[in-house]
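pinned: reference chain
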Amino acid sequence: MLYYVVTLLLVPSVTTDTAHIEIKRWMNYTQCIGQLIAYNVQCPRDELHAYMFDKTCGERKIKSAIETMRKAIEGVKLYTFEHVGRSVCILDMQTDTVVFKCEIDSS
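pinned: its structure tokens
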């Protein structure tokens, strides 16, 4: 079942019975860390997921973001959105495998 959690800042995030899920641009990874921690303090869940997108901030910042997120949130599950040809994929960053793929309709 999906829920929406509203913190004191009134920022909604998707939550399930077992996980908090945050979707952010890579450049906003610190907000992602803070929000996942805040949600989990207010309403504990077994899993924390971060879905990241928009790599325009550069590979160096992304590498630093990954390292920081893994240190700040033990066991965080990291995913990134990738464009591959005519598809949009969600890549599991722990296993480097595609967990979701969607073809883009060009019509």
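why pinned: The beta strands are 2-6, 12-16, 19-25, 47-53, 77-84, 87-92, 97-103. Residues 7-12 have pLDDT under 50 and may be disordered.
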